[in-house]
Known about the structure:
The chain is mainly alpha-helical. About 65% of the residues lie in helices and about 5% in strands. It contains 12 helices and 2 strands. The protein has helices spanning about 5-10, 15, 20-50, 65-85, 90-95, 105-120, 135-160, 160-165, 165-175, 195-205, 215-240, 245-250; strands spanning about 130, 210. Strands 1-2 form a two-stranded antiparallel ribbon. The chain binds S-adenosylmethionine. S-adenosylmethionine binds near residues 155, 159, 186, 195 and 233. S-adenosylmethionine (SAM) binds near residues 164 and 185.
Amino acid sequence: MTQLDHQVHSISPEITGSRIFRFIAFLYGIAAYLVFFVTILYAIGFVMGVMVPKTIDTGAEAPVVRAVLINLLLMSLFAVQHSVMARRQFKDWWTQFVPKPVERSTYVLFASLSLLLLFWQWRPLPSVIWSVESPDLAVTLVTLSFAGWVLVFTSTFIINHFELFGLHQVTNHLVGKEMEPPRFKTPLLYKFVRHPIYLGFIVAFWAAPVMTAGHLLFAAVTTLYIFVGIALEESDLVDLFGDEYRQYKQRVSMLIPWRRSV
Ligand SMILES: C[S@@+](CC[C@H](N)C(=O)[O-])C[C@H]1O[C@@H](n2cnc3c(N)ncnc32)[C@H](O)[C@@H]1O
């Protein structure tokens, strides 16, 4: 056992194992999941410009340079939080303070809060970059964007929705069951691309009948971030699964199903 492991395990086995803690941890996990769920539903309305009070193209305007800087800051805040907190070294460090069973829920909660901050403080940049004239093409693009969101949701269930968003961890802890070690999986869509969730986001963000400068900034920066996120995630996955993941990378393309290994 390393010194770090010792510190992690020595925080509070009596407290974290107690019945009351398990129950509070479970409620916390459910609350974090609900915050995530509201956030992702809001994200759909925000990006597609429907059903929510504040969208990517509405809200208080600011001078262009200020608006770009604020928006970049908001996206960077999310990117840093989302990437740093997902790394193993960070998890090893902060599970000294945050009990392991609620680590994932806390990550999900922080990610949701930084996204809600982004939606709230986002400054619109309303200049139109493209606007599709043809109603048929416009409907096709809206449908495609919606299909992107469906792909995101479906893929989370295919890979393991409840573990990704921390519910599996708090439920297992509640009933005194250990989490199983992560397993390499290639279910359904994962046989065609390695990152269907990220592909769904890219499609959802770019398929827009009216593309404003603000929306374009959002789509471009998030796409860039997805590529950085993939590099980090795949480096972790190679560390975790070794040759199995290396061979998967050679066999299956990253995002575009008809191309072999990107
Ligand atoms: C938000 S999910 C994104 C999964 C994938 N990148 C995608 O776009 O569909 C990230 C989690 O999925 C896990 N993961 C990604 N691919 C995996 C695979 N083939 N088998 C098992 N776990 C995987 C990663 O370890 C990480 O914890």
